Amino acid sequence: MNMSSHSANASLLSLEDQVIYGALTTLAREVGHRLKRAAYSSLIRESDDYGAAIVSANFELLGEAETTPLQMGPLAGYCRGVMETLAEYGEELDPQGIYLHNDPFRGASHSPDIGAIAPLFAEGELFGFVGTAAHHVDIGAAVPGTCIIKAHDAFSEGLRLLAYPVELQGKPVVPNWRLIESNVRMPELVGGDLRAQVAACRWGQKGFARLVERYGLQKLRAATERLLKVTELRMREAIAALPDGIYRATGYLDGYEDTGEVDIPICVTLEIRDDQIFVDFSGSAPQLDHAPINMPFYGTTDMAVLLTLRTLLLPETEFPNLPHNAGMFRPIQIYAPKGSIVNATFPAPTIGRFCGGQMVANLIVRALQDVLPERICAGCSTTKAITFSGQINGKPWIYMDVTEGAYGGIYGMDGLDAVDVLYANTKNNPIEDIEAHYPLRVERYELRENSPGDGKWRGGFGPLRDTRLLTDGFISVEGDGFRHAPWGLKGGKDGATGGVVLFTAEHPEGVLLPSKIDNMAVKAGTVVRDLCPSGGGLGDPAERDPAARQRDFENDLITPPRGD
Q1: Between 302-313 and 217-240, two packed helices, what is the crossing angle to 10 degrees?
Q2: Measured between alpha carbons, how far is 392 from 516 in angstroms, rounded to an integer?
Q3: Full-model pTM
Q4: Does the chain have fewer CB atoms within 10 Å around its N or its C terminus?
Q5: Going by C-beta distance under 8 Å and a sequence separation of 6 or more, which residues neighbour residue 140?
Q6: Which residues contact residue 221 at a Cβ distance below 8 angstroms, ignoring those fewer than 6 apart?
Q7: Terminal alpha carbon distance of the chain
Q8: Single residue among 230, 261, 280 that ends a domain in this structure
Q9: Domain total for the chain?
């Protein structure tokens, strides 16, 4: 942050306000850390596919942990969904209750991301909520795991938990736990992760009680409102500094090759007007009634927009001390036609919404390429998930592998290699952990050579990963970008498309699969090669620094042209 912005923040916030924000954020981080340390599954304890946050009584984010944005950002919507559900059924919020919630049509990001929500009461008043959200490896859907790419409707995607109480009056509701654990394939693991979420929320309640004791309820309320107003002001200032105008971008999802529903368009129009931004998705494809790549508006589409704009307009490098709260979202309005792929209506399936959300984030960046030329990047890849599953001695096992992608070239630097991109921030799972817990062997893990889009700043390298099954099993794939490569910008070249290749005894040369595979049976010894897309280039390749190009040659990442 420059001195002027730091001084401006300091003039609007008292030292005590800043200390209170630090206390709320620290509490959210402690809640998240306790969840991570107590979790059973590698998705949480290794890949960080979880979130924790403090939310106000009127459903605005006040403080968050430092994990994946797509788990923290939607938690305010989870809280709203819990309260709306309780009101619909005429139930009162139990001050000592903890509720599980995963309905994507009531705030949840998608059904495997289950939220645990606990109220924060003080002096008989509801201050807000502490919440955790985490991705669970199985929720009892038609096939093992959560890479569900064939689903008739929302009911086909597994357990639906709407403000589902697992603790009331401070005590476990044993029959409710029994219902969950008897409807998932790995009850010890799923139940263990959920109990870790509940325990983390209890810690959050205790920490909040200490804050009330120190500052008092009214002082906490007043400070959080001032904090929200400061971030709103900073966002309005950032928007007002941009040229008014209308900016557009369109991208395409792979869709389903087996049904001919391919090249699904998503259209984004941004209008910058004074100190507000209006985002319109008119022109996007209608929802697919029997395909779960639809997106719920709240928790996915809105988060892809808001988190991307926050990163572009209020970057950490310039605003390192700016509070992370919902104030920054107030000047942004989003419209998505109901019944479209970016705002599906119940009971459309939505469990495979991740790649669509990544496309939305990509398009926001692309639309602003001439507005923020020194902050944007070329086309990024999307993250791919592959579920490996099977049974050993009659006991199911499930492993979901989230393979990272790559950024497009960024102004002033090459795209980042082999990392999660845009609105996600999960980590890869260590090979040692995979091989210690599952009948899998990772035989190759490297950057894809010659794959990024060339440019003044080239795209990042996506990874290549070979995984061998040591027993008969099944694989499911939820991916995208097999038909459409990450785009180059400003004269840069497109990156490389992704792929999944199956090597078997019958096909030792390999068979290229489509981007969506539904529970395919595979034999022991089969090798699954995961090829993640590589980023597009930014700027004219002729302007690339020869020394940077030479480094890529020397590192065997790029093959020199013949004659060099």
Answers
A1: 70
A2: 26
A3: 0.94
A4: C
A5: 158, 159, 183, 184, 185
A6: 127
A7: 45
A8: 230
A9: 2
